[in-house]
Amino acid sequence: MRSSILRRNQQILQTCEAASTRRSFATTSSRSSASLTSTCQSCNKKLLRPVSQSKSQRRWQSSSTTREAPFEASAPVPQTHYEFFPQTLPQGPPPSGPFHIDTRTLRKEFLQLQAVAHPDRHPSHLKNRAEATSARINEAYKTLQNPLLRTQYLLSLRGIDVAEDETAKVEDPELLMEVLDTREEIEDAQEEEELEGLKKVNDERIAASETILDEAFREDDMEGAKGE
């Protein structure tokens, strides 16, 4: 998986998005940003404003009328990243559920869960548990929203560890050349539309890889998943 198609496309996508972000950052409205953020009273970090309570939040609170109940010692602890997002991923991980994830829906549920889990919303005796839960939610979201990290995670559930190899120094000449060529195209791009074109092509490649991975995990073909 070290020189996999998915890994190559992820690197190219990150390059395109980084360039696009740099170009658009200067034009971002500070007023718009301020309207979506608030400040944590404990750590003074900027936070997204909590969204309205959803079914996902109510599910966490179903055993009690208080919002602290999910953080009591007796509350069930999710065993996989998928269990944190029952609204988006009701079927769980493959093969019972699909490999593909609607990342917009996932992000919406993530924000709803974090609005409930933030330590400032809990009394002192539950803050440690809330902090631990919040950290696990963050890790679960970070992993599941990224196809490459999601693949590595699913393989790890089967006892296959490819993360160390994936984080090793990139030595694949084909991968290096393609990333360098993409960076050159980005530097030569004069309009935002040109960057969008590059990103669209790469998104299509990633979607094709996700289709292959979906079939591989559904058929319990771990070698096929590793190869992609």
UniProtKB/TrEMBL annotation:
Q: Where is this region: Disordered?
A: 51-73
**Which top-level group of life is the source organism from?**
Eukaryota
Instruction: Point to the regions of Low complexity compositional bias.
Output: 52-67
The biological process GO terms on file are: [2Fe-2S] cluster assembly; protein complex oligomerization
Supply one GO CC term from the record.
mitochondrion
Q: Check the record and name the PROSITE patterns matching this protein.
A: DNAJ_2 (PS50076)
Q: Where is the J domain?
A: 80-157
- A Pfam family per the record: HSCB_C
What Gene Ontology molecular-function terms does this entry list?
A: ATPase activator activity; protein-folding chaperone binding
Q: Which CDD domains match?
A: DnaJ (cd06257)
InterPro entries, A to Z: DnaJ_domain (IPR001623), HscB (IPR004640), HscB_C_sf (IPR036386), HscB_oligo_C (IPR009073), J_dom_sf (IPR036869)
Keywords, A to Z, come to: Chaperone
Keyword hit for Chaperone: yes
PANTHER family from the xrefs? IRON-SULFUR CLUSTER CO-CHAPERONE PROTEIN HSCB
- Family from the record: Belongs to the HscB family.
* Protein name as annotated: J-type co-chaperone JAC1
